[in-house]
Prior knowledge:
Blueprint (H helix, E strand, L loop, with lengths): L2 E5 L8 H15 L3 E5 L27 H12 L2 H14 L3 E4 L9 H8 L4 E4 L13 E2 L2 E2 L10 H4 L7 H16 L2 H5 L2 E4 L2 H9 L7 E3 L19 E4 L8 H11 L2 E5 L5 H11 L2 E6 L3 H9 L3 E4 L9 H8 L4 E4 L14 E4 L4 H12 L3 H18 L2 H15 L5
Parallel strand pairs: 1-2, 1-3, 3-4, 4-7, 7-8, 9-10, 9-12, 10-11, 12-13, 13-14
Antiparallel strand pairs: 5-6
Helix pairs in contact: 3-4, 9-10, 9-13, 12-14
Amino acid sequence: MPKLLSINNYHYPRGGAEVVFLEQNRLFAQTDWEVVTFCMQHSKNLSSDWEEYFVDEIEFGEDYSLWEKIQLAPKTLYSFEAKKKVSELVAATKPDIAHCHNIYHHISPSILTTLKQHNVPIFLTLHDLKIACPAYKMLNSKGVCERCKGGRLSEVIRNRCLKGSLLVSGLAYLEARLHKLLSSYEKHVTKFVVPSKFYKDKLIEWGWPAERFVYVPNFVDSSSFRPNFEPGDYFLYFGRLAEEKGVDTLIRSAAKAGVKLHIAGAGPELNRMQQLASSSGADITFLGYQTGDELHRVIAGSKCVVLPSEWYENAPISIMEAYALGKPVIGANIGGIPELIDSNHSGLLFRAGDEEDLANALVRIEEMPTEDIAELGRFGCSWVENEFTSEKYVDRLIKIYKEFGDIDN
């Protein structure tokens, strides 16, 4: 039985990367692989047979004292604890493949050297742009930012790209500079797995060799979705309520278009967005944070899902979920979004940040005959069922693993 060492900071569904990590583990376990997990200790973690090897918790949301922050800083850059524990875990389990997801800060890239020393092929899924951009997203308070291109990493400090903080941005710079000097990613990662073609192209544009990347799109388990092609009477945004998500633009566009909009989600901008919605006079309902079956019900009851992002989104699973539930998608023409929307077949694209263009797209769907909207939903649903299934995801990864590991599966 082949053995997969699956690595991520958190072992609970904290965000999109964690969902992919946990689902990948579940799928491989069903495909007769033994899955060994390596994560960080956390009170919300799901149980694991390997948690005795997990690294000690670092939770940046906690109110650490200045002295505690000073003590933690070196560990977030390069964790000797993680190196030691992953070495012990590899010796105990002898994995055939190591697949990393989000390892920055908590586990740190220090483990890559150790895995390489144990001759374990290393795959790293890029859920963000961290290997190029110290601030992860190529985004700061002024919008999309590519100032670090060409190795000018100090731009992250100059522009205070992380939380507007000189200290946090400075730590991000030190981390990026350290791992650049150590060639942590260049020397040790066998292949970078990219869920969007956009991320692959962007990283190549920034100087990474094309052969280091392999495109493996995200997936949904379509068998767990029940599509409803009958259009509802409201447009829907679901996701985090943060400035870069473009929800402000959507609110203003909904007011211009005179359409009904439901917003499902939580985040730091909730109160401000509620005030904006109220002052706009638009017909907007905030549903709060939704998940599981209730979220599926909200999506299935909508007319169309809207993804108005204003940053380099990777490969939003929310689009696939909308399709799987029979709904078309209006999406911003930025990042990896356009490659998941077949314009006029599964939905519509608009210029990111352009509220007039988005309002026009909303009106087009609003005025479209019911059967035409349903047809957009059917196209998207068929696309998911053919291209973005969990079975294809596993097959694609195993095919790549076999190129670099001695795997019989």
